[in-house]
Every structure is written in C-alpha cells, then in structure tokens.
Amino acid sequence: MKRAAIMILCAGSFVAGAAAAETCDERADAKNRDWAKSKHEWLASVEHKQDVELGQTWCHIWETVGIDRLQKTIDFGRVLFTGDGLHPSIGSIVPGSGFAGGLVYNLERASQSVPLRFSSSVEARGSYNGFWEAGGKLDIFGTRNSATDQHIHATLDAEHYELPQMTYFGLGNNSSLANETRFRLSQTTGGGHVDVPLPGGFQFVTGLAGLRNVQSRAPGFSLPSIEQKFTSADTPGLGVDTTYLVAGGGINWFYPIAPTIQGFATLLTTEFRAFHETSGAPYSFRRFDVTWIGRYTPPTSIDLGTISETFRLVDSWAPAGNSMPFYLQPTIGGMDINNIDMLRSYRDYRFRAPSMLMFQTEYKHTVWGPFALFGFYDAGKVALQRSDIGISHFRHSFGTGFLLQLGNLPVMKFYYAWGGNEGTHTTYTGNTNNFTASAPAGVF
C-alpha cells in the first residue's frame, strides 16, 4: 500500500507538471486565437508576438527545476533582450564607461513587392558616470535567388556618443603610465556602406560617411585633465574640433562560402579610407586596415574546442602639412574604443599612435550551453612612423576568462590577463543588443 501511494503521488506530480506545461502553451495559443479574430497592422502584430512569447517563456521557467530551469531562464532572456519589438539594452558603451542601460527597438520586415528584406534598430543607452549613446541603423538585404546564398547588403546608420572621461597616456609605444590623463570626446557619425558579393567568396565594400568630433578637457576627476600634461606640440588635435567627409572601400574574402561549425574557416578584410577634413584644419589623413581571422574546430563528435588566430594591421598617414588627431588614432591595451580586445594585460587605450600591428591566439571551449572558457596570447605594438611597423619590440599578454553567448554572439565577456611590465588587468565587456551601427571612430 505504501509503495502504491508513493507511485500515485509521483504520477500525480507528473500529470500536474504536464498540465502546467500545457497551461503555459494553451494560454499562449488562446491569446493568438483571439488576436487572429480581427485584422491588425503588422507593427501591432510584432508587439503582440513579443508579449505572448515573454509570458510563455516566463511561465515555462516555473514548470521545471535544476538545470532545466536554468535553460528555460536563458530562453526567457533571449526573448527579453533580442528579436523584434521593444527591449531593454544593457552593457558597456566603451571601455571605461561602466555599466550602461537603456532601450532598443528592433524591427525586421520583408518587402512584398521587391526581393528585399529590411532590418532596423533604434537604441539609446546611458551609464551611471555620464556616458551615453543614441542612434539607429537600417540594413537592407537582397533576397533574390542566389547559387551561393550571398546577397547585396546595404546599411544606413547615424549615431551620437558622449564620452566624458576617456583615458590618454601620450603617444607611442613608450608612453608613460605616470602620464595618465582624461579628456572628453563627443562624436556624431552618419552615412552608409554597401557590401557586394563577388565570385569565389570575395566581397566588395564601399562607403561614405560624415564624422564630427568635439574634443575638450575633462576637469573634476581624480586624474589630471589632458591639457595639464600635454600640448598641441606632442598631441595633434588637442582641443581642436574636426569635421570629416570619409570615403573608402575595400575587398573582403571568406572561406568557406557556406557557413560551417566545424573544420577550418577564414576571413580577410581590407579597407582604405580617406578622412577629408572640412573644418578644423590641418587634420586630413588616410587609413588602411587589414584584418585576418582564422578559426579551426576539429570535426569530431566530441567537442574539443576552437582555436583562432587573428592578425590586425593599421597603417595611417597624413598629406604634407597635415596630421592625424590623437583621438582618432588606433590604440592597443585592454580594449580599444570599439570594444575589441588588444594586448589585454595592459590598461584600456594604453598605447596610441597612427599605425598598429597586432597578433592574437585564442582557444575557446564550451563548457555548457551558452557558457564557454577561453585562454589567449596577445602580442602587439603601435608606431608613430610607418617605418617603425615591424615584428620587433612587441609587447605581450597572456590570460584566461569566460564568456556568455546567445546564438553564437557574445553578450558578456570577462577575463584576467598578465604579462608585460605593468601588472595584471581584469575587466569585462558586454552588450545584449550587439548594436551594429558604427562604433566611435569606426566609420563603417
């Protein structure tokens, strides 16, 4: 009798759990049936779908326990932070901005009259220490039948960044840590670019944008303002506002053409951009960027992780009588202004110059679901003159960390790095929206 009572209780618990699961889905189905009884505008339908999915995934959390509950919670987070409609947006704006939060509105829609698909995003975020950004973008994708499933992709975007306390140590590979100062930067960009697929995995990219920079001192912080230690003689563009028309293009190549999870994959991007100054002379310059990324995942049934190699080169030069403003020069150390990891044992923005060379090796292994561990080695340098670009006198970093990824996109990254001669560096970065408009100083 006792055993029978236990079995009945267990069976009752199972049935109750199944009923609860059906209740979540039945409630969602009922909302959808009621909604379908009348006609609605497509925008209202987007918001209805988001509302139903939020309630449904939230309900599913409480049906389960243990590891299943964690998986359902992750699924709820995916619905809460991504997809069409209005969502919260959290994560850093630039290194040093601290935690930031705001709202993003995403919409995606296919044209019924022409073979095009539109994807748009409008976002605004602010941090507790005064950093904020606001902007929007529109992606237009061709959808005509293609043998390689590659299509023309055009992007229009505009954004504004307020960065009240950016870090500056001076120029060059031998700048002093003792010269750390702060400066303020406001930046507005607007423009667009087009990616045109070519045979063999090649892609032609061209773009045109406007760029406005307002640089000023940053008093009132624990560290000196930039003008207290530097002058325009050693820091080009100090205290100067600039406006640019930026035009350029390049060739990209990726292999294989069809996306693959295992095996070898590589991406090579090249881009030349002319920054023609229209106010704030004389600060016109040219910039050439090359990035190569190789990735290898062993094609086995057992997850052995992924090894990736990255090479980055930036070569900048200015016409006679001109120079490149310090706030548009590439940096290595920690993360750069675009939240790209570079020489991670050093402080963010630690070394700055017109040209830069960087190598990275990283191993990543997924430990469970969206969580992964990684280890890395970085080597790099900056160069004030083009003739100084070379593979000697590199600075080095080693480290390890973990990341959270949703849909193979990292939404949070934490690492601890050592090496070099300036101690260790621990930091994190994150962005739930993966906002793809031009980052500060990026300009397509």
Distance between the termini: 74 Å
The biggest beta sheet reads: 16 strands, antiparallel
Radius of gyration: 25 Å
By DSSP, the count of extended strands is: 18
Helix content: 10-25%
H/E element string? Answer: HHHEEEEEEEEEEEEEEEEEE
- Poorly predicted parts: 1-21
Structural class: alpha+beta
Q: How would you write the strand order of the largest sheet?
A: 1-2-3-4-5-6-7-8-9-10-11-14-15-16-17-18
Helix count equals 3
Mean pLDDT, rounded to whole units? 87
Overall morphology: globular
What fraction strand? over 45%
Structural write-up:
Helix 1 packs antiparallel against helix 2 and helix 2 runs antiparallel to helix 3. The longest helix has 35 residues. The protein has 444 residues and is of the alpha+beta class. A 16-stranded antiparallel beta sheet has the order 1-2-3-4-5-6-7-8-9-10-11-14-15-16-17-18. Among the domains are: 65 residues, no CATH class; 242 residues. It contains three helices and 18 strands. The N terminus is likely disordered.
SSE diagram, text form:
Blueprint: H1 2-36, H2 42-61, H3 66-81, E1 85-90, E2 100-110, E3 116-127, E4 132-142, E5 153-168, E6 181-197, E7 202-217, E8 242-255, E9 263-279, E10 285-297, E11 306-317, E12 331-332, E13 351-352, E14 355-368, E15 371-383, E16 395-406, E17 409-418, E18 425-430
Antiparallel strand pairs: 1-2, 2-3, 3-4, 4-5, 5-6, 6-7, 7-8, 8-9, 9-10, 10-11, 11-14, 12-13, 14-15, 15-16, 16-17, 17-18
Helix pairs in contact: 1-2, 2-3
